[in-house]
Amino acid sequence: MATVIRERRTIYRFKPDPVDPAAIARWIETAVWVPNHHLTEPWRFFVLGPASRRALADIRREATRAKYRDRPQVERVAERDWREYAEAPAVVIVAQAGSDRPERQQEDYAATVLAAYALTLAAWAEGVGSAWATGRLARAPETYALVGLDPDVDRIVAILRFGYPAETPPMRRRPAAELTRTLP
What is the pTM of this model? Predict the structure, then answer.
């Protein structure tokens, strides 16, 4: 397991090969075994098919156009962003179910992040890479509408693109000792 954690990379370019839906179901089944306080199981998974991936890509294109509207390359960037989602072999949205208790919200958020990460590790262990998005697309009301969530109640934690890596970038990390303090 340590090898999978150390070798996992964010993959930005995928081969066009499809990802087996049974594999995605298997990875999600693994992800639901992460720790969660009081066994709330706050995670929700949305596996997007081709039509919903294109709809998500349309949302991404419009968000990009809005962000870069004053720049001359806006259409080129918007088209690139559209392709990232429309042509992704697989996309899974991971969301946190809402709670009316603030302390539970924080605990459930942490658990949902763990589930999303476990999902990426399970995929990587089978040779499938992922890219994790949390930005404008994850906050867009249109994305919530696409998967039938209420942004006033639920929270999209990750939009994960999956596929077989076309290239695997190198990764560097600082030694853990530089980031660790041992207290008396």
Answer: 0.93
